[in-house]
Structures are given as C-alpha cells and as structure tokens.
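Q: Two folds, back to back.
A: First:
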Amino acid sequence: MGCGCLVALASVISPRLALFLLWLFTDRLTIAFESGWIGLAGFFFLPWTSLAYAVAFMPGPGVGGFGWFLVGFAFLVDLGSYFSSADARRRQAYA
C-alpha cells in the first residue's frame, strides 16, 4: 500500500490524522506551505482545507483550476463542521 492510499484511508477517519501522516512520512506539507505556522494553524482551525491544499499544490504553478475547486469544497466542509457543532451545542443548552 502506497503512502497516498494510507493518507486517503486516514482522511476518512480524521483530516488531522492524514495531515500528521503527511508531515511524518512525506515532505508534502513543507512544499505546500511556506511557513510552518500556516500549516499548524490550518491543522487546528481548517483541517480539511489544509489537507486539500497540500494535496492539490504542485511545485512551480501552485494550485490549479480543479485544485481550487477541491480547496473551496474542503473550506465549505470545514465551515459546515463548525456551524453544525455550534448548532448542536445550542440545542443541548436548551434541552
């Protein structure tokens, strides 16, 4: 099983686990993010977006057409995660 398959399986469990495996076994995050702080902030606040950006990033041209679609979709998934958890907390407070 290649590293790509391992990361894909890990992302089903958790995007943070997939990012950790990418950091541990490849130099993909170093290539995609100029600063380690940006990658670390993405790990904590926008994990799906960071994972999509790291996967879509190509050295030289950066992120291309369909890659931006993936990053945008991942951003919407991150936002949906935040809004659904806030809604669940609000419902629990009134229950």
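A: Second:
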Amino acid sequence: MANIKSAKKRVLVTERNTERNVAFKTSIKTAIKKVLIIAQQEDKSELNKALSKAYQLCDKAVSKGIIHKNTAARKKSRLTKAVNKLTSK
C-alpha cells in the first residue's frame, strides 16, 4: 500500500472506476444474451428494441472509454451475424 496521500486516493479512485467498468461490461454481456434469446423466439419488434439497446450500450462504453472502439465494433458485428443466422432459419 502506498504511503503518499495522493497515491492512496488514486488507489481508491481506481477501485471505484474498476467496479463501474466491470458493471458496465456485464450489462453489455447481458444485453447481448438477451438479444440472442429474443432472436430464437422470432419476435421482430422486441428483437429490434433489444438489438438497439445492445448497440447503444456498446457505443456508450466506447464514449466513456470502457472498451476500445474496435472491440465494440467486433461485438456488434458478431451479434448481427448471430441474429441473422438465427432469424434466417
């Protein structure tokens, strides 16, 4: 543990930010799983809402610096491919 006061503060801030980032990443994963479940049920309006929400969360994470823009693009691309595969059956 650090002895300098500012270093102690940085440790606390880092812990708080890490907790927030983990929670945000978890919400993205949950939204993606929800989209895949809805895609199997073939409810178009609900699917569009859920897909839009997942995209929104990815874009928001990029703007907040939680994930890299290429990571968000990859997640959205893979999600779209999976949805298209499930809905085409």
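Q: And?
A: The chain has one domain: 19-87.
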